[in-house]
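Troubleshooting: if your tokenizer reports a length mismatch, compare your output against this known-good record of 147 residues.
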Amino acid sequence: MWPPLVRTAFRAQGRSLGRRWPSTDALVAAAEGRALRHRPDLWPVARERAAYLLGNETGGRARLDRRRLVEDATDALTGEPTLPAVRNLNFPVHLIAARHGAHDQAKPLLSDAALTRAATQVPRLTSERVDANHITLLADPALALAA
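Known-good structure output:
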């Protein structure tokens, strides 16, 4: 990805998240509603994260450092590859990849070809696809227990 494009996209996301929210539900609906559309069981976890960001459960302005949000996203998506960092580890690495991207209709963020390339570069790497998107992958307790 091209760094200026990533910066622009995440600056816009940071501006959106940085506004005043009337409630945790409003923040969850705007930030993760599409990703959680088919997983109402995960709304309580998302509400917890939203309450943490807001500093309460009744609403307000999200506590986030927008500059760091943009820097971290740019580094993660355009910075140095991470595979060389794990290539020489002396223990197995297991990657759990979501079947979908930002929501259940989106393509996965990690393609099958990328997983295959990674396995050739990191001999101790195994991977599996799970039925999740990149939000539900992090929020689903069943997936955490399976790992």
